[in-house]
Design goal:
This protein is of the alpha+beta class.
């Protein structure tokens, strides 16, 4: 019997397989985690551009004959296209076409989403419906709120061609001791000089009257808009609850937990339990 008090995250994601004897070596050279020496069945990792900017948040599922790459946040066609371009003719690496996979993970409110290992089911798996029906699944709205509270980055919001994984609280997905990988030079430089300029935060509006006609996503130190302290990246509006994610300049994080948005008025900011910073 499943414990009905436990809650589970179920969502479909794009995935593709990588086969060949060089598959692990190939992924190790382009992602931030140590793929070669991991003892985990599933690894969460980042794919960066050469300048260390986050392009995709992915999971790698180690199967007996292949590696399964699950795209948690990112452009699947861009990823497969880019991966194919950097496979050398001598590499024994082959990428499959993308498909959808069902991902199930236990969650709680007080620990990071990266604490629990997921379970995967293909759409055609007969066991999937039986297994799913035994679980206490988060509904769509509760899942959206939980993912905001966990500061899980989304494509075209936090993954916007500007932010690096250290700013997004994903330090634990970076292996600073492994060999070269795409974006490694920037990651090492930031770590060695502690030069993070901003950090991701959860924000929540304290007011009930909003100026939704305004498009200014900036956050300010006060209502006079004297100093810009950051920018809203995600907005979630459910009933009376207005919250989201924002990138806040690090030098202002110690100046209080309240800032000002021209759209949402006075807002409170908090660090996510899922975020790990330098």
């Amino acid at each position: 019997m499943q414990d009905i008090k436990k809650k589970f995250w179920l969502e479909k994601f794009d995935c593709f397989s990588i086969t060949g004897k060089d598959a692990r070596k190939f992924l190790n050279g382009i992602t931030t985690s140590n793929i070669l020496n991991s003892e985990n069945k599933v690894i969460k990792t980042c794919w960066l551009n050469p300048n260390g900017v986050l392009r995709s948040l992915i999971e790698i599922n180690f199967l007996e004959r292949n590696l399964e790459v699950v795209i948690l946040a990112g452009n699947t066609d861009e990823i497969i296209g880019s991966f194919n371009q950097i496979i050398f003719p001598a590499d024994d690496v082959l990428l499959s076409a993308p498909c959808l996979i069902n991902r199930i993970q236990k969650i709680d409110e007080s620990s990071s989403w990266r604490t629990h290992q997921p379970i995967f089911f293909k759409t055609e798996d007969k066991e999937f419906e039986i297994y799913k029906n035994k679980l206490n699944l988060l509904n769509s709205n509760d899942l959206k709120i939980w993912k905001i509270n966990q500061a899980i980055p989304s494509l075209n919001m936090e993954i916007n061609g500007k932010n690096n994984p250290l700013e997004l609280g994903l330090k634990d997905l970076i292996d600073f001791n492994k060999g070269c990988y795409l974006g490694q030079e920037t990651m090492s430089k930031i770590k060695n000089v502690s030069s993070l300029k901003q950090e991701i935060r959860i924000w929540k509006s304290c007011e009930s009257n909003f100026n939704l006609d305004v498009e200014d996503k900036s956050l300010y130190i006060n209502s006079a808009k004297e100093i810009s302290v950051g920018k809203i990246t995600s907005i979630l509006k459910l009933d009376s609850q207005i919250k989201g994610l924002a990138m806040i300049k690090r030098k202002y994080l110690e100046q209080g937990s309240y800032f000002y948005s021209e759209i949402f008025g006075k807002i409170i900011i908090n660090k996510s339990v899922g975020s790990v910073f330098l």
